[in-house]
Request: fold
Amino acid sequence: MKLHWSPRSPFVRKVMIVLYEAGIEDQVSCVRTPVAMDKPNLDLLPDNPLLKLPTLVLGDGTAIYDSRVICGYLNDLSGAGLLPAEPRARLTAERRQALGDGLLDVLLLYRQERNKPPARQTPEWLDAFELKVNAVLATLEKEAPALQATPFDLGLITIGCALSYLDYRFADQPWRDGHPALAAWHRGFCERPSVARSQPDDSAG
Ligand SMILES: N[C@@H](CCC(=O)N[C@@H](CS)C(=O)NCC(=O)O)C(=O)O
Reply:
């Protein structure tokens, strides 16, 4: 299998963590594929008309996306057990995955907006992004005891990757302030070998 990959994408990181957890990283070759919202990478066009990472090309040439679909597929393929079978637990894991993915979607747009010259920024957008990020953090702080009690799964992977993206791209915003239980959970998350192995890497071109 071929994975369109970047060492900086939090969505690709979800896939890498699943591969490491499943012990099947040898079955995938990672191809560095640069992407940017304002510079469409047409090399991706044959595999993904949305021109986004991650995109996984299977052995028979079938291309699949997005991260949720790829992680679900790799979990099924490997039997890694990262999505609970029990319906209620499964629903919680899927909801957490949606929350983490949604937070990442907001953060990517937020970063894009705040990197513009000040005169071209839209203050209402920045306010709305900040409001959503704070609301998600407040929700997760309340949920932190439940996160601690949940066996490692795709919901936790996604929440953890989103919080780590805050550290990576929003280091000036101290999200741990006011969220001590969530910060404690995230500390444990970062110690997991699959997570430690998949740190974002700015030096990797
Ligand atoms: N919902 C998608 C989001 C993927 C995504 O936004 N990836 C970013 C890289 S982190 C991307 O490819 N951006 C390029 C673009 O939006 O054109 C997923 O879960 O895979």
Summary: Residues 87-114 form the longest helix (28 residues). The pocket of glutathione is lined by residues 9-11, 35, 37, 51-54, 66-68, 101, 108 (CB under 6 Å).
